[in-house]
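Fill in residues.
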């Protein structure tokens, strides 16, 4: 019973960490990364479609993204979506390929991005702590209903705390890596 609660808590914490990683990928650094635009919604034949479903995205150089649409007719739709996004990038196309030049970040913008990263890190930690709270409530309920003994409850509580600490540390590591990536000139 306790193992089921811990397994459920771990899978939910893992999804919070995965969500943070995906979120971090969309934060712009001085280096070109396909993750920057792959989930960008593009209005294609009347429906919002992620860019990665419409084109191949490559980073042939550290400051350049090349987007090659599967359907040459969608070049203008993709270009409009990039211009409408909050990326602050200006696309250029030759009718078949869209090129995005990633300009270097200034110091002020780097500091703003670090704050965004820290805020998202804190949101992920809150999500992990919420999972811990829910799992702890389940454990208390099991003890109250005499499904598990008091000793098993405390052992489960300790295991849950270790799990929470481990995921919190992983979130901190991911945040430090992203901050270093942003501050790298």
């Amino acid at each position: 019973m306790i193992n089921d609660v811990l397994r459920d808590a771990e899978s939910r914490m893992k999804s919070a960490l995965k969500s943070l990683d995906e979120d971090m990928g969309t934060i712009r650094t001085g280096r070109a990364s396909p993750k920057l635009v792959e989930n960008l919604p593009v209005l294609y034949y009347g429906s919002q479609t992620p860019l990665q479903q419409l084109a191949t995205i490559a980073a042939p150089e550290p400051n350049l993204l090349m987007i090659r649409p599967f359907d040459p007719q969608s070049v203008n739709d993709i270009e409009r979506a990039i211009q409408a996004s909050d990326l602050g990038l200006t696309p250029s196309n030759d009718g078949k390929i869209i090129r995005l030049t990633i300009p270097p970040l200034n110091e002020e913008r780097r500091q703003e991005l670090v704050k965004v990263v820290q805020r998202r890190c804190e949101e992920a930690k809150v999500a992990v702590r919420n999972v811990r709270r829910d799992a702890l409530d389940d454990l208390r309920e099991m003890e109250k209903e005499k499904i598990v003994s008091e000793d098993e409850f405390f052992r489960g509580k300790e295991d849950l705390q270790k799990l929470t600490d481990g995921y919190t540390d992983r979130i901190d590591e991911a945040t430090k890596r992203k901050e270093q990536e942003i501050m790298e000139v």
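The chain has a mean pLDDT of 89.
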